[in-house]
Amino acid sequence: MKKTHQRFKVMSSGLMINRGNPLLRASPDALVACRCCGKGLLEIKCPYKENLKTTTGEEFAREGKYHLKIGENSTVHLKHTSQWYTQIQAQLAVTQYSWCDFVVFTQKEPHITIERIKYNKIHFEKEYARALNFYDKFVLPKLMEM
User: Could you give the CA distance from residue 23 to residue 76 in angstroms, rounded to a whole number?
Assistant: First the structure.
């Protein structure tokens, strides 16, 4: 990234709390920033231990495994049906950043694949409504019984 971005840096993030709704929180793997793109998030996933040394991110995507798929020009993409996609959307909503670099790391060359994922407000709002419904329907009644 330092080769393709101006003054690229990675910073630790810790727990981040949404200013408008303190119940919304996230802990992305890191924050990233550069002069050319501004600030964003970083989320890193490593494949299952037994496949870490023998399969690349692109190979996982070609097989449709590990929440990945192959797109145009043989690029690796995170499936929008994946819980990781929802996790990233929630992190973006909490932090109010507009993008996240999603990295798949393996020990087989090439070691990493990177996809820049942009905030999808519609996806987040749909999942947030589902989470609130689950809380109202199942969690809150149990808490009220205590």
Answer: 33
Q: Parallel, antiparallel, or unpaired: how do β-strands 38-45 and 99-105 relate?
A: parallel
pLDDT digits (tens, 9 = 90+) for 86-121: 999 999 999 999 999 999 888 888 788 899 999 999
pTM above 0.90, yes or no: no
Contact yes or no for 32/41 (Cβ under 8 A): yes
Mean pLDDT of the chain: 89
Give long-range contacts, CB 8 A cutoff, 24+ apart: 109-116: 109/56, 110/56, 110/57, 110/58, 112/57, 113/56, 113/57, 113/58, 113/61, 113/76, 114/1, 115/75, 115/76, 115/77, 115/78, 116/40
Domain ranges of the chain: 9-145
- Residue 87 DSSP code: H
Nearest to 29 by CA among 48, 40, 42, 19: 42
How far, in whole angstroms, is CA 17 from its chain's centroid? 17
